[in-house]
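Sample pair:
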Amino acid sequence: MEGYYIPVGVESIEPELFPDVALYLRSGKNYVLYKSHGRNFSKQDAVRLIANNIDFLYVSPADMEIITSYLEENAERLLNDDSFDGRTKGKIIYQTSINFVGDLFQNPKKVGDLNRSKRLMENLLSYLSRDRDALSSLETVMTHNYHTFVHSLQVTALSVLLHSEAYNLAHDEMVDVGIGTLLHDFGKIFTPQKILNKVGKLTEEEISIIKRHPEDGYQYLKENTRLNDISLAIVRDHHERINGKGYPRALKKAEISRSAQASGLCNVYCTLTIDRSGGKALPPYLAIHLMRQEMQDAFDERLIKILEGITCSEEPQQQLIL
């Protein structure tokens, strides 16, 4: 996340409680100082910004750790505050989750704090379970320019919903699934940024480097955390396919854990439905069609049908784009 200003929803900036950091407005690709350090953010500020249809202010990367800590420490309280509607709560928990992933990518040693991961996942699961329109709130954070972190959250939210429909999981196992999915691309911290950010076709050598990330992430997390086998399997095997044509181990069918299969399916779906520079986002019904036609036998058809039920309505024009 280095170099990116961090968006913070105006609704979650509580006067008198929010950390004293400089806040910025975004103007095109530039960031203009709105509130300097040492000046309080008031209720009048919030009213004025919302009246002008400004949903986010931005924080300098230098203050990211302060803001991330504040949001994580206050997420449960904010989510239980009845003065916030569901969409606002979605902005809060999604932004908190994205900042969490960004913080771990920037500071990999922090990934060993399992209690922090579980606390965040408990809040995310709580929100997803009680808000029927939870996925639609993702639209508010999808426009911000740190694809890997937004993608991690998108896959996690969808994977949790898919698991809840497909399997009868205990709550603790669902937490493990969520943590593993949120960290599924952790191995990309070892991938050169020039490859991750490349626009256009990758070379065969670059593709081979990218394909190392599941094993790299698995090995690091296994050696440096207390994550269990459910979470670790998702990290290692989310690019495996039941036809044996996946990587890094070319596993087949039951050799791939059910959670890795489900998370891998959501990973592909989310990749197809997010608009990234150089790639056009597909509406859900076309993404599902493409996965059935061009990735035949790669995924369990039962899981595809459940995913289709979650993401697709009856009429194409009414499709929910995550």
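The beta strands are 6-9, 23-27, 30-35, 56-59.
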